[in-house]
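Milestone M4 deliverable, item 7.
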Amino acid sequence: MTGPSVLGQCSWPDLDGQVITLLVPLGSVEQHGPHLPLDTDTRIAAAVADAVCSHSDADAGLMRAPDLNYGASGEHEGFAGTISIGHEALRGLLVEYGRSACRWATRVVFVNGHGGNARTLVDAVGLLRYEGRDVAWFPCAFDGADAHAGFTETSVLLHVSPLAVDTSRAMAGNREPVGALLGAMRSGGVAAVSPNGVLGDPGGATADDGARLMAEVSERLSAALSSWRVDAQGRLA
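Output delivered:
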């Protein structure tokens, strides 16, 4: 494939008859504590997709789609700025997106930056695969990560979007294991367990740690694209 590797920069003849794997960054608009932007999850998913595309061979056929910025973030609606479209709307969006994109793309991979989207992805991708479309999803999951807006996400943002991080406002939130918080979160969302919206501690986060974390996830996605093994949940393993 020749020409730009970003979908929005192409014209249709650039794509017609090509073998293309379309990477679709999927994130959210939700609170990430006092110090990180509302689009943190989208920035992370986009950065992973960009890294994989930029390091791939020219003939790999990888293409990066425009971001899908909204997700299922109901657990964060106790904080200003959060916009959640919920499971049903997100499911419909992903299904129709996959159906349309697969008319010309060989494969579609939703690169997911928000854990709350996972249930919807399993459902939507499962339907698309049942319909015969070669669609999968990949989680931007970091080994040893804390839950939300803590060391992990702050480090990654310091690497990919340093100007978007207000370190002067960074502070620890609830550092209990997420499993111990699930009951209260199911009834009252994140606000019920963390007044500042942070689950973890951003203290000590560095751009170097973020670069390491990003490299690990990007390498995993590159390897998964090469092997193309899709599990029973529609996830690219």
